[in-house]
Amino acid sequence: MLKKRIIATIVVKNSMAVQSFSYKEWLPLGKPYCLAENFDRWGADEIVLLSTDRQNNGPDFELIKSISALGLTTPFTYGGGIRNSKDAIEVINSGAERIVLDTVIYDNISEIKLISEAVGKQAILASIPLIKENNGKISYYNHRLNKKEDISIYLKKISDLQSLSEIILIDKEGEGSLGGFNDDFVNEIINYTSLPILVFGGIVNDHQISKLLSTPQISGILIGNTLNYKEHSIKKIKNSLNSKQIRFHKSCG
Fold first, then answer.
1. What is the pTM assigned to this prediction?
2. Which structural domains are found in the chain, ordered by start?
3. Which of 34, 103, 201, 220 could form a disulfide with 171 if both were Cys (CB 3.0 to 4.6 A apart)?
Protein backbone atom coordinates (compact mmCIF):
# COMPACT_ATOMS: atom_id res chain seq x y z
CA MET A 1 0.00 0.00 0.00
CA LEU A 2 1.33 3.42 -0.96
CA LYS A 3 1.95 5.63 2.04
CA LYS A 4 -0.24 8.73 2.10
CA ARG A 5 1.07 12.23 2.72
CA ILE A 6 0.53 15.06 5.15
CA ILE A 7 1.33 18.16 3.08
CA ALA A 8 2.01 21.56 4.61
CA THR A 9 0.43 24.42 2.69
CA ILE A 10 1.55 28.05 2.70
CA VAL A 11 -0.95 30.53 1.28
CA VAL A 12 0.76 33.72 0.08
CA LYS A 13 -0.61 37.17 -0.71
CA ASN A 14 1.65 40.12 -1.57
CA SER A 15 4.67 37.88 -0.89
CA MET A 16 3.52 37.42 2.72
CA ALA A 17 2.32 34.15 4.25
CA VAL A 18 -1.29 34.61 5.34
CA GLN A 19 -4.07 32.77 7.06
CA SER A 20 -6.84 32.74 4.51
CA PHE A 21 -10.57 32.63 5.21
CA SER A 22 -12.38 31.37 2.10
CA TYR A 23 -9.95 33.46 0.01
CA LYS A 24 -11.94 36.53 1.10
CA GLU A 25 -10.17 37.71 4.25
CA TRP A 26 -6.52 37.47 5.20
CA LEU A 27 -4.52 37.44 8.41
CA PRO A 28 -0.74 38.01 8.03
CA LEU A 29 1.47 35.24 9.43
CA GLY A 30 4.98 36.31 8.44
CA LYS A 31 7.62 35.49 5.88
CA PRO A 32 6.91 32.34 3.83
CA TYR A 33 10.46 31.06 4.29
CA CYS A 34 9.98 30.97 8.08
CA LEU A 35 6.96 28.69 7.73
CA ALA A 36 8.75 26.56 5.14
CA GLU A 37 11.72 26.04 7.47
CA ASN A 38 9.39 24.98 10.29
CA PHE A 39 7.45 22.54 8.13
CA ASP A 40 10.69 21.08 6.81
CA ARG A 41 11.96 20.45 10.36
CA TRP A 42 8.62 19.11 11.55
CA GLY A 43 8.43 16.32 8.97
CA ALA A 44 6.02 17.45 6.26
CA ASP A 45 5.93 15.09 3.29
CA GLU A 46 5.70 18.03 0.89
CA ILE A 47 5.40 21.82 1.09
CA VAL A 48 2.92 23.47 -1.27
CA LEU A 49 3.12 27.24 -1.68
CA LEU A 50 0.09 28.88 -3.27
CA SER A 51 0.47 32.49 -4.40
CA THR A 52 -3.08 33.83 -4.58
CA ASP A 53 -2.51 37.15 -6.35
CA ARG A 54 -0.39 36.28 -9.39
CA GLN A 55 -3.10 35.99 -12.05
CA ASN A 56 -1.93 39.05 -13.96
CA ASN A 57 1.72 39.03 -12.87
CA GLY A 58 2.99 35.54 -13.58
CA PRO A 59 4.77 33.37 -11.01
CA ASP A 60 6.63 34.94 -8.10
CA PHE A 61 10.09 33.77 -9.12
CA GLU A 62 11.90 35.70 -6.39
CA LEU A 63 9.78 33.99 -3.75
CA ILE A 64 10.39 30.57 -5.31
CA LYS A 65 14.14 31.20 -5.35
CA SER A 66 14.12 32.35 -1.72
CA ILE A 67 12.41 29.11 -0.64
CA SER A 68 14.75 27.02 -2.78
CA ALA A 69 17.79 28.75 -1.25
CA LEU A 70 16.84 27.35 2.17
CA GLY A 71 18.10 23.93 1.12
CA LEU A 72 14.95 22.14 2.27
CA THR A 73 14.95 18.35 2.40
CA THR A 74 11.18 18.39 1.85
CA PRO A 75 9.85 18.47 -1.74
CA PHE A 76 8.61 21.95 -2.65
CA THR A 77 5.65 22.62 -4.96
CA TYR A 78 4.55 26.02 -6.26
CA GLY A 79 1.27 27.33 -7.67
CA GLY A 80 0.30 30.80 -8.82
CA GLY A 81 0.40 32.69 -12.11
CA ILE A 82 1.67 29.84 -14.30
CA ARG A 83 0.22 30.52 -17.74
CA ASN A 84 2.32 28.53 -20.19
CA SER A 85 5.24 26.13 -20.62
CA LYS A 86 7.76 28.98 -20.40
CA ASP A 87 6.47 29.91 -16.94
CA ALA A 88 6.45 26.26 -15.90
CA ILE A 89 10.04 25.69 -16.95
CA GLU A 90 11.22 28.82 -15.14
CA VAL A 91 9.36 27.82 -11.95
CA ILE A 92 11.11 24.43 -11.98
CA ASN A 93 14.47 26.04 -12.79
CA SER A 94 13.94 28.47 -9.90
CA GLY A 95 13.76 25.58 -7.45
CA ALA A 96 10.26 24.10 -7.27
CA GLU A 97 9.97 20.37 -7.89
CA ARG A 98 6.32 20.42 -8.94
CA ILE A 99 3.75 22.98 -10.09
CA VAL A 100 0.07 23.59 -9.42
CA LEU A 101 -2.13 24.72 -12.32
CA ASP A 102 -5.63 26.19 -12.15
CA THR A 103 -6.73 28.99 -14.47
CA VAL A 104 -4.67 27.80 -17.44
CA ILE A 105 -6.58 24.50 -17.41
CA TYR A 106 -9.86 26.36 -17.66
CA ASP A 107 -8.70 28.97 -20.18
CA ASN A 108 -6.24 27.10 -22.38
CA ILE A 109 -6.43 23.35 -22.00
CA SER A 110 -4.18 22.76 -25.03
CA GLU A 111 -1.30 24.44 -23.18
CA ILE A 112 -1.28 21.67 -20.56
CA LYS A 113 0.14 19.15 -23.01
CA LEU A 114 2.99 21.56 -23.81
CA ILE A 115 3.65 22.10 -20.11
CA SER A 116 3.68 18.35 -19.55
CA GLU A 117 6.16 17.86 -22.38
CA ALA A 118 8.34 20.60 -20.90
CA VAL A 119 8.48 19.56 -17.23
CA GLY A 120 7.02 16.04 -17.13
CA LYS A 121 3.59 14.73 -16.17
CA GLN A 122 4.79 13.79 -12.68
CA ALA A 123 5.44 17.48 -11.93
CA ILE A 124 1.92 18.75 -12.67
CA LEU A 125 -1.02 19.06 -10.28
CA ALA A 126 -4.43 20.50 -11.12
CA SER A 127 -6.12 22.73 -8.54
CA ILE A 128 -9.92 22.62 -8.49
CA PRO A 129 -11.67 25.08 -6.12
CA LEU A 130 -15.21 23.89 -5.43
CA ILE A 131 -18.28 25.24 -3.68
CA LYS A 132 -21.56 23.60 -2.70
CA GLU A 133 -24.55 25.80 -3.38
CA ASN A 134 -27.67 26.04 -1.23
CA ASN A 135 -29.52 23.67 -3.54
CA GLY A 136 -26.81 21.05 -3.10
CA LYS A 137 -25.24 21.57 -6.51
CA ILE A 138 -21.44 21.38 -6.60
CA SER A 139 -19.78 24.01 -8.78
CA TYR A 140 -16.29 24.98 -9.87
CA TYR A 141 -15.31 28.41 -8.53
CA ASN A 142 -13.52 30.60 -11.05
CA HIS A 143 -11.28 32.87 -8.95
CA ARG A 144 -10.29 35.04 -11.87
CA LEU A 145 -13.87 35.87 -12.84
CA ASN A 146 -15.18 35.56 -9.26
CA LYS A 147 -18.10 33.39 -10.28
CA LYS A 148 -19.41 29.82 -10.21
CA GLU A 149 -19.07 27.59 -13.25
CA ASP A 150 -20.62 24.29 -14.32
CA ILE A 151 -18.29 21.68 -12.85
CA SER A 152 -19.06 19.06 -15.49
CA ILE A 153 -17.41 21.16 -18.22
CA TYR A 154 -14.24 21.60 -16.18
CA LEU A 155 -14.10 17.96 -15.08
CA LYS A 156 -14.57 16.78 -18.65
CA LYS A 157 -11.38 18.68 -19.50
CA ILE A 158 -9.60 17.03 -16.57
CA SER A 159 -10.80 13.53 -17.44
CA ASP A 160 -9.58 13.90 -21.02
CA LEU A 161 -6.10 14.99 -19.93
CA GLN A 162 -3.22 12.54 -19.77
CA SER A 163 -0.84 15.22 -18.54
CA LEU A 164 -1.46 15.38 -14.78
CA SER A 165 -0.13 13.52 -11.77
CA GLU A 166 -2.65 14.54 -9.11
CA ILE A 167 -5.66 16.75 -8.44
CA ILE A 168 -6.01 19.14 -5.50
CA LEU A 169 -9.63 19.57 -4.45
CA ILE A 170 -10.07 22.86 -2.59
CA ASP A 171 -13.13 23.44 -0.40
CA LYS A 172 -13.36 27.14 -1.21
CA GLU A 173 -15.89 28.03 1.48
CA GLY A 174 -14.42 25.65 4.05
CA GLU A 175 -10.88 26.99 3.64
CA GLY A 176 -9.87 28.72 6.85
CA SER A 177 -12.95 27.56 8.74
CA LEU A 178 -13.50 24.94 11.43
CA GLY A 179 -16.29 23.25 9.52
CA GLY A 180 -14.27 20.47 7.95
CA PHE A 181 -13.74 19.48 4.32
CA ASN A 182 -16.94 18.65 2.41
CA ASP A 183 -16.80 14.92 1.59
CA ASP A 184 -19.32 15.40 -1.23
CA PHE A 185 -16.57 16.99 -3.32
CA VAL A 186 -14.57 13.75 -3.36
CA ASN A 187 -17.65 11.71 -4.21
CA GLU A 188 -18.33 14.01 -7.16
CA ILE A 189 -14.80 14.01 -8.55
CA ILE A 190 -14.23 10.26 -8.50
CA ASN A 191 -17.05 9.91 -11.02
CA TYR A 192 -14.88 11.73 -13.55
CA THR A 193 -11.29 10.69 -12.97
CA SER A 194 -9.10 7.95 -11.55
CA LEU A 195 -6.24 10.38 -10.82
CA PRO A 196 -4.95 10.50 -7.22
CA ILE A 197 -6.69 13.21 -5.20
CA LEU A 198 -5.34 15.65 -2.62
CA VAL A 199 -7.79 17.60 -0.46
CA PHE A 200 -7.49 21.07 1.10
CA GLY A 201 -9.72 23.37 3.12
CA GLY A 202 -11.22 23.32 6.59
CA ILE A 203 -9.35 20.22 7.74
CA VAL A 204 -8.73 20.75 11.45
CA ASN A 205 -9.05 17.46 13.33
CA ASP A 206 -7.41 14.05 13.31
CA HIS A 207 -10.70 12.20 12.91
CA GLN A 208 -11.48 13.80 9.56
CA ILE A 209 -7.90 13.39 8.38
CA SER A 210 -8.07 9.66 9.15
CA LYS A 211 -11.45 9.36 7.44
CA LEU A 212 -10.29 11.14 4.31
CA LEU A 213 -7.09 9.11 4.09
CA SER A 214 -9.13 5.90 4.25
CA THR A 215 -10.59 6.80 0.84
CA PRO A 216 -8.46 4.79 -1.64
CA GLN A 217 -8.23 7.53 -4.28
CA ILE A 218 -7.08 10.18 -1.81
CA SER A 219 -3.27 10.29 -1.81
CA GLY A 220 -2.75 13.03 0.76
CA ILE A 221 -4.07 15.89 2.86
CA LEU A 222 -3.07 19.53 2.44
CA ILE A 223 -3.18 21.44 5.73
CA GLY A 224 -2.54 25.14 6.14
CA ASN A 225 -3.87 27.21 9.02
CA THR A 226 -3.98 24.38 11.56
CA LEU A 227 -0.22 23.87 11.35
CA ASN A 228 0.75 27.46 11.98
CA TYR A 229 -0.02 27.75 15.67
CA LYS A 230 1.24 24.49 17.12
CA GLU A 231 4.91 23.60 17.23
CA HIS A 232 5.64 20.15 15.78
CA SER A 233 2.00 19.98 14.69
CA ILE A 234 2.76 17.58 11.83
CA LYS A 235 4.40 15.12 14.21
CA LYS A 236 1.36 15.24 16.47
CA ILE A 237 -1.01 14.63 13.58
CA LYS A 238 1.01 11.70 12.29
CA ASN A 239 1.30 10.13 15.73
CA SER A 240 -2.48 10.11 15.98
CA LEU A 241 -2.97 8.25 12.69
CA ASN A 242 -2.57 4.68 11.54
CA SER A 243 1.18 4.29 11.05
CA LYS A 244 0.62 1.82 8.19
CA GLN A 245 -1.26 4.50 6.27
CA ILE A 246 1.15 7.44 6.30
CA ARG A 247 4.80 8.30 5.78
CA PHE A 248 7.08 8.89 8.73
CA HIS A 249 10.39 10.74 8.80
CA LYS A 250 13.09 10.71 11.42
CA SER A 251 11.93 14.18 12.43
CA CYS A 252 8.51 12.71 13.18
CA GLY A 253 9.72 9.70 15.13
1. 0.90
2. 5-252 (3.20.20.70)
3. 201
